[in-house]
Amino acid sequence: MIPISARYGMLQIASIAVCCSVALAEDSPLLKRPARSFVGTKAGQVRDDNGLKMKLVWCPPGKFTMGSPKDEKKRNANESQVEVTLTKGFWLGKYEVTQGQWKRVMRTTPWSGKKHVEVGDDYPVTYVSWLDEVQMCSELTSEERRGTGATLGSRRITIAGNSAAEAQAAQFTKRYAPPTHDAQTLLDGANREALKTGRRLLFVEGGPRREPCREMARWMDDQHALLSKDYVILKVLDTDTHYGDVIGKFRSNRGGGIPWFAIAEPDGTVLATSDSPLGNTGFPSSFEGKKYLKHILDHTARHLAPAERERLIESLPND
């Protein structure tokens, strides 16, 4: 859940859940610490036990009135007051998410070159859409659920001048590094297959270390039988060679994060992308994201029946 405030026409993030963790030996005493409770103990409780050291404030379940009083000046007709019940509590960011925090997680700077923006790590994030914010929160929440959320420890190993340590480090890196491919070769093969079979290209940009990217990859694998009726699926990772050159053929705006996808003809004509009016939908698990993906499927699928397109949307998880 991320309450958002609109300020001077630009959305700013108001809350987020975050994590940073490291692997420890199985016999480490730090692993025996009791798990932290996600539920706060009282309204206004503050915690910052996360990788970004972001201060979060506990908002307990309860009721409040949302909307504008009828006598408020310049109110809109659709702002009638309603009573809202929160059945679950949540942690709200005490301050706006900063540009420094955003860059550490998303590795993008969507505010760059924009007017009326103060630039610096301590200034708030601007020029990000609601979907951009959902994607950031989704990724950090996924990381939080996989671990304790706290940084348990770190260790620096000096290998300079130590040939044995250098060899061990190189072997470890080679063993656990994600596989790399030539993105241009993959694209050429996918286009040939699409042209040969009368299908279109479903191009997906992702990264091996980002949970939303892994979620989208798993969803595409699970739904491959349906998706492959209309699309040749091509997944390109930011670790692949010629990655930037290939991405540039489909995507002009690199500020919306990943995963990102496009539907294109074999000749490279882009028919649709995941850049909705609200921003990059990423892995479309939100209501608006699913709605936009349905729109894309309805306008680009030539072989999938309406009922099959509905099945694809229904197979997506809910935020």
Radius of gyration: 23 Å
The profile of the biggest β sheet is: 4 strands, mixed
User: Averaging pLDDT over every residue, what do you get?
Assistant: 80
Strand proportion: 15-25%
Tally of extended strands?
13
Please describe what this structure looks like.
The chain starts with a strand and ends in a 5-residue tail after the last helix. With 319 residues, the protein is an alpha+beta fold. Mean pLDDT is 80; it is low at 1-35 and 148-154. The chain has a four-stranded mixed sheet with strand order 9-8-10-11. Strands 3-4-7 form a three-stranded antiparallel sheet, with no helix packed on it. Strands 1-2 form a two-stranded antiparallel sheet. The longest helix is centred in the middle third of the chain and has 17 residues, at 130-146. It contains nine helices and 13 strands. α8 runs antiparallel to α9. β10 and β11 (270-273) form a beta hairpin. The protein has helices at residues 99-106, 130-146, 163-176, 183-197, 211-222, 224-227, 243-248, 287-300, 306-314, and strands spanning 4-7, 10-13, 46-47, 56-59, 62-66, 82-86, 90-93, 200-206, 231-237, 260-264, 270-273, 275-276, 279-280. The chain is globular and about 65 Å long. 31% of the residues lie in helices and 17% in strands.
